[in-house]
């Protein structure tokens, strides 16, 4: 198993906690802070998915006039997590 606690930048959420297995399948995701309902939905949708598939779908999403978003920051966390294996 691979695990990361990723401090976010430029979003309302402060931290993303992610665990993936040795096959890069996401096992658990949680956000500290941010929009609770939307982030719970994202966590449920990406759990069980391959890291690369999630990055392909969520990378580059912006929130309002911010150059990033919680889904985009999740991609940053997943890229780091993937590099751990």
Give a brief description.
This protein is α+β, with helices and mostly antiparallel strands. Helix content is about 40%, strand content about 25%. The N and C termini lie close together (about 10 Å).
Layout of helices and strands:
Elements lengths: L1 E6 L5 E8 L5 E8 L2 H11 L4 H8 L11 H14 L2
Antiparallel strand pairs: 1-2, 2-3
Helix pairs in contact: 2-3
Report on this structure.
The protein is an alpha+beta fold and 85 residues long. The chain has a single domain (2-83), classed as Enolase-like, domain 1. Helix content is 39%, strand content 26%. The protein contains 3 helices and 3 strands. It has helices at residues 36-46, 51-58, 70-83, and strands spanning 2-7, 13-20, 26-33. The protein has a 3-stranded antiparallel beta sheet, with helices on one face. Strand 2 and strand 3 form a beta hairpin. It is globular and about 35 Å long. The model has no long low-confidence stretch (mean pLDDT 96).
The CATH topology is what?
A: Enolase-like, domain 1
The strand count comes to 3
Structural class: alpha+beta
Q: What's the SSE pattern?
A: EEEHHH
The number of domains = 1
What is the C-alpha radius of gyration, as a whole number of Å? Answer: 12 Å
Biggest β-sheet: strands ordered side by side in the sheet:
1-2-3
Helix content: 25-40%
Q: What is the overall pLDDT average?
A: 96
Low-confidence stretches: none
The best one-word shape is globular
CATH top level class name: Alpha Beta
Strand content: 25-35%
Give the N-terminus to C-terminus distance in angstroms.
9 Å
Largest sheet: 3 strands, antiparallel
Tell me the CATH architecture: 2-Layer Sandwich
Number of helices, counting only DSSP H or I runs of 4 residues or more: 3
